[in-house]
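Could you please review the protein record set out just below?
***
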Amino acid sequence: MMAILEGEFQELASEWFINENEALKITTRLHDDLNPDTMKDMYASSNRYLFARKRLLGPIESVAKQRDFISLPMPVALYRKGVFVMTGDTSMSVAIVNFFTHNFVWLLLIAVLVYMLTHGGIWGSVKKLLGLGGERIATYKESVKWVVSHRPDDPRVAKAAMLRESPGTGKYKHRLILTYLDANNEMLSDAKGVPYGARRDVDGFDAEFDKVFGKNDLIVLD
């Protein structure tokens, strides 16, 4: 029985962080409680370990409640129900909160400027924020989707073609021509003589487009 009591006491002492002085107080209180009648009840118990734990827990809790309250050495701000509650010396905490409260707009502007300078310059970032767009990159997937959805209702159409030219017009580096061919690979036009398809000036092509083009500038889609 004593071995069970000692084992449970060691576990509880570890869980409750019992120090040496507290252990002596607990042992003194247990001296009167662990009498022959208690030992008999423990022996007859269906779970002697649980019985021992319950007997030990009362004195341990009683001693633990006598511990001194330890205050926080630094000011701490707690957030409760949408309100900051300061504890301890609040002078520094209040100063920090006031600084961020009164300078929020300026801090936000500085953060935006840093973002712009590190992401393609201020004008490029402004264009993106205003939806004016940045580089025009032609993607292979969207181009294929376009030639399929805009296929002319002309029985002569046998295939589509994609042609890249450099340079493009104005500031653009490339021109992408999407067109339609007959069975003899001749470019087709409508009844007014306007070639079928579209012409787009772009800054570049995505990785899939470059892979399909390879060293060539023409792609024929049957």
About this structure: Residues 42 and 48 are 6 Å apart (CA to CA).
